[in-house]
Amino acid sequence: MSLDDITEDRGRPRAGRPRSEQSRSAVVHATSELLHEFGLRAMTTEQIAARSGVSKATIYKWWPNKYGVAVDAFFSELQADSPDPDTGSARTDFTVWLRGLCRFYSGPSGRVFAQLFGEAQFDPEVATTLRDGLIRSRRAALESIWARGVARGELRGDIDPGVAIDLIIGPALYRLMAGHAELDDAAADAIVDAALRGLSR
Question: Where is this region: Disordered (predicted)?
């Protein structure tokens, strides 16, 4: 990671005035475009500032580095592709959620997300940013689906929810990183079906 990507307070945004939603949206949108055009490593904070019209100093007040902005950009795209459903059926909710994740993974954003995931294996700061800014929030949606399913008697209450969620997310992430199999609706359906055979009552 270059000095350009690191602030004085590593891993934490600096204190500053609250973000303007318009400016935040401009930064996130610009980052999404640049990630697709240049990739994660080649993208710079200067490019984000120039494309968004928001100063580099202001960006560093709101995000610790370019990876933090990238995580927010990915989160926005994931929210659009993979909403948090509540259909009254845990199986349907998991299927809808995982289909959206597979659409995200199989598109241009998925390839860039794989770069971010790869960076996290070598840089603890990137790993923390990814885990705290994206992974925990997405797992929280699945934890809610799991809790509702247990409460309705659809799912087994004697299974660790974290392990159950790993069984649903894990195969899709493995397919993204290994590239050995499809990431489409049929794959999502098959993953959920296989997982719930052991997780359902």
Answer: 1-26
